[in-house]
Amino acid sequence: MTTPTLHDVLIIGAGPAGLATATALSRQLYTTVLFDSNLYRNARASNMHNVLGFDHVPPPVFRAKAREDLKARYSETVTFADGVEIVKTTKFRDGLFKAEDKHGKAWFGRRLVLATGVTDIPPDITGYADCWGYGIFHCLFCHGFEERGAERVGVLAFGLTGSVKMATHIAYMARPLGKKVTIYTHGNEALASEISAMANNPFTIDTRKITSMRMAGGGEHSTSVTLTLDGKDGEEGEEVTEGFLAHAPFTRPNGPFVEQLGLETAENGDIKTAAPFGETSVSGVYAVGDCGNMVKAVATAAASGALAAGGMVVPMQMEPRVEMDVEAMEKVIG
C-alpha cells in the first residue's frame, strides 16, 4: 500500500489569497498543496487596479507571475494541483484534514485554508448577469477611474448596497467620477425617503423598479448600461443609459465546505473569521480572500493570505513535524 503524503497545509483556491498563503508558508519550509479550479471572480475584468506593481494589468498576468515565483523559488515545498476541483473536506478526530476531488483522489494536511472566493448572486432583473463585471462595478477603487467624467453614473440601492449607509457611501464614491449620480432604489420608497431626508443630499433618487438592463454598446471597452424602468400609474416605461453602475450584490462562498465543516457564517454570508489571522469557528481551518472578508479586492485578498500564514505557523511550530506511515494514517482517518 502506498503511504499517503501528509502535507502541512491544504489550500483550496489559487487566486491572490491562496497564492499569498502558499508563498508565505514556503518561507518557513511548510509544505502546501495549492488546488486551482481555474475559476476566478474577476474573470471579466480586463485589468485590475489598486495593486502595487500591477496597476492596470490583466488579472491572469498577476496570477502567472505569482505562480512563476513559487515554481522558481519554492518548488520543494509547493505542490500545484491545477484543474482540480475539491468537492469534499473532512476533519478527523486527531485534527488532520482530508480533501477529495470528484474522482475520489484524496490529499491530507495538518491545516486547511479556504481561498475559494465567492459567487455573486444576481438580483432577479433581466440582463443583470450579462452586465456584471462589464458595466456593473462592485468596487470603485478597482474600477471607475477610467470612466471618470461620465455624464451619468448609477448606484443600485439593493442587495448589500440596500441600506442608507451603504447606498450613500457608494454614491459619494461615484460622485467624483460622474457629473450626475442617480441612486436607484428599485421600488423601495422607504429607503428613498431616508436618503432624500439627508442634509445637503447631492444625489438624484429614482424609486422606479428596474425591469431589465443591457450593455448600451459604443465599442469593445464601453461600460455604459441601459436601464429599462417601470412606468408609474400606467405610464410607459423609460430607458435611461448610465456611464456605469455601482452595485454590490449578495454573495456566497464557493464550494460545499461551510456545510461540510460546520463553519459559522457572518450576516452577509461570508465565512466568519477571527481577525487578524482568518481562523474560522473550526480549529485549524482558515478562510482567506473574498470568502472570509467583506472587502473583496486583490490587494486585501493577498494580505489576508499572508496574515493567515503567519497565524497558523505559530501553533504548527509547537507540533512535531513527522511523516505518518500507513498504519498511523489509518488510525487517524479510521
TrEMBL record:
Arranged from A to Z, the UniProt key words for this protein are: Flavoprotein, Oxidoreductase
Domain named FAD/NAD(P)-binding: residues: 7-305
Q: Which InterPro entries match?
A: FAD/NAD-bd_sf (IPR036188), FAD/NAD-binding_dom (IPR023753), Ferredoxin-NADP_redctase_2 (IPR050097)
Single Gene Ontology MF annotation: oxidoreductase activity
> Please, which domain of life does this record's source organism belong to?
Eukaryota
- What's a single GO BP term from this record? cellular response to toxic substance
> Which family is this sequence assigned to?
Belongs to the class-II pyridine nucleotide-disulfide oxidoreductase family.
- The protein depicted here goes by the name FAD/NAD(P)-binding domain-containing protein
Q: What organism does this protein naturally occur in? A: Colletotrichum simmondsii
